[in-house]
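Researcher: I'd like a candidate sequence for this fold, 292 residues long. If you have to choose between options at a position, lean toward the conservative one.
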């Protein structure tokens, strides 16, 4: 069993981005600039956005955080997006999800200039990705693809089972793995909460991507010997032994599943770090588009 280390791969990606950013600045005078919009004060969203901002600084990007109270109006958020769309010094725009219930999320996403859509959630970005001509790929599935590539994992002809059909992770992941790329070229089964015989389907999988958000869901008796296990879960679970009062738990029962796996991602230290690395990659791409 080999651990797929998000720490090692994300550092490698960040080192490359840092070097490319210096080159880009020298050649064009442009410093990549990410603008993040955070609405309300959900603890997990605060942590993710703070991490995104810090990582921008690590690789030499500029960043701007725009905050709104949890009761902000749809119009106020939309006005901020229009302003960022028009600001030529901003190359990437992301709106941290989930949004408060009174906000129409899709309407917000649709307003982002697709050339600045570094989250890859805009319908044009999704459409380009599905057609195999991606502009921006959603950060978590993109990060997983970068990780598989880094470790040289041969996915051709393998049966990949994706658990979870979210627009952010499961569905784009299933599309990317099905494409005629490397990694890719998988036979993909996309499972969800209405799937029957989930255990039997998982047991057939050469690759399992667990992205359903239920801590410890994937048990040892659900996986085949030698399977590749990718854990996307990042649920906060109360833990009084931690300074923060919580521990981060993945969707995989790691201790039981790891001995059966050929490769497995840990939580923390796995996919989460790759999500950030992929976001940085997309932001550099956006800055390069702006220089064309
Ligand atoms: N919430 C959970 N994951 C993500 C992500 O990748 N991007 C944004 N904007 N919000 C998220």
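Model: Candidate sequence:
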């Amino acid at each position: 069993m080999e651990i797929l280390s998000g720490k090692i791969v994300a550092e490698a990606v960040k080192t490359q981005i840092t070097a490319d950013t210096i080159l880009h600045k020298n050649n064009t005078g442009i410093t990549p600039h990410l603008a993040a919009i955070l609405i309300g004060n959900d603890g997990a969203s605060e942590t993710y956005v703070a991490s995104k901002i810090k990582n921008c600084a690590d690789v030499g990007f500029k960043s701007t955080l725009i905050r709104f109270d949890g009761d902000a109006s749809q119009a106020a958020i939309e006005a901020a997006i229009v302003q960022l769309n028009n600001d030529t010094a901003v190359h990437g725009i992301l709106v941290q999800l989930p949004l408060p219930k009174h906000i129409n999320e899709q309407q917000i996403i649709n307003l982002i200039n697709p050339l600045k859509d570094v989250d890859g959630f805009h319908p044009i970005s999704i459409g380009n990705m599905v057609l195999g001509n991606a502009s921006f790929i959603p950060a978590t599935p993109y990060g997983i693809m970068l990780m598989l590539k880094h470790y040289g994992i041969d996915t051709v002809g393998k049966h990949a089972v994706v658990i979870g059909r979210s627009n952010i992770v499961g569905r784009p992941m299933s599309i990317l793995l099905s494409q005629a790329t490397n990694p890719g070229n998988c036979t993909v089964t996309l499972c969800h909460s209405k799937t029957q015989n989930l255990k039997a389907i998982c047991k057939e999988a050469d690759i399992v991507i667990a992205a359903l958000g239920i801590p410890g869901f994937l048990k040892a008796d659900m996986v085949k010997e030698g399977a590749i296990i990718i854990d996307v879960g990042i649920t906060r679970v109360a833990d009084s032994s931690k300074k923060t009062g919580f521990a981060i738990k993945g969707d995989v029962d790691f201790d039981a599943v790891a001995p059966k796996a050929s490769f497995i991602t840990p939580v923390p230290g796995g996919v989460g770090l790759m999500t950030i690395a992929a976001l940085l990659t997309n932001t550099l791409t956006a800055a390069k588009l702006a220089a064309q």
